[in-house]
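Board notes (copied after class):
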Amino acid sequence: MSNSIGRIFRLTTFGESHGAAIGGIVEGCPAGVSLDLAEIQLDLDRRKPGQSHLTTQRKESDTVQVLSGVFEDKTTGAPIGFIIPNEDQRSKDYSHIKDTFRPSHADYTFDQKYGHRDYRGGGRSSARETASRVAGGAIARVFLKTLGVSVTAWVERVKDVELPFQHVAYTREQVESNLVRCPDATVAANMQQLIEQARKEGDTLGGAIRCVIEGVSAGWGEPVFGKLHAELAKAMVSINAVKGFEIGSGIAGTKQAGSQQNDAFVQVDGETSTTTNNSGGIQGGISNGQQIHFSVAFKPVATIMKDQQSVDKDGNAVEVKGKGRHDPCVLPRAVAIVEAMAALVLADASLIARTNK
């Protein structure tokens, strides 16, 4: 099982949805970085369940405990170990799927691959695992701040309600101004209405999250197989329910001619820049110093509160009933996950870039 991301700045995670705890180890974080535990907890609070009526009502404080690698509030260069105890497991909610596969979940594929699966909340395949990513990503974010790099994400679309992207980098305060985490109040209200309606109907919704990164120097990324946008894409698609990744103008850009798409280089006050940013801040797999921006598409949550047709371990037709506590739309909580994964990739890329010259 693959449980690590990164080459120098590396996060390894462990734990299951209904186990005693989840956690991780961050290796490669330089010594001397001031690490405020409250700052890590803030990101975890943005991801945790039960934070509003728009999310799953599982109650987890997601309180992180740092076990190593930090002394007198600064990193020591040693591995940073942390755990996040599980506090509100209801394993009985999943007894009905012990020998049954839920449609569009990882139940069947995990059973086929390993022959023995933890069916309680999906075990290791549960989105509960992403809390460890957020904790590790928060550490990466603190390190990136020392380099002048910021990572901000927001809900860009819920179903067909969308906030058009205009190369704006919204502030954390704007994103956190409402339950949906869309920085436009009017659009957010329409999104919230859709989510609330889906919950009433026992259904779920998908959409997209936009991420903007500023302050990245030109020269990050490792051609040919470690291109920066390739590493970002891999990180994003590894998140539960993600089905698409678009950087820069993305698929829409394929509908234009080269004369419309190419970013022309110009000199402004002795510095090289481009007049547009269709590339998303990355060319040839290497950052060009511009704003990096991309969009991540999430499918609707697979667990719905409606009866569905499936099969059991013996291949018999069965009816699966929706039970448990689940998100009608994962997007508001996933904003913190997208930011965390982007921060992990960038922290690693920054350290690798130090070896290039």
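Comment from the instructor: The chain has one domain: 4-353. The chain has a mean pLDDT of 91.
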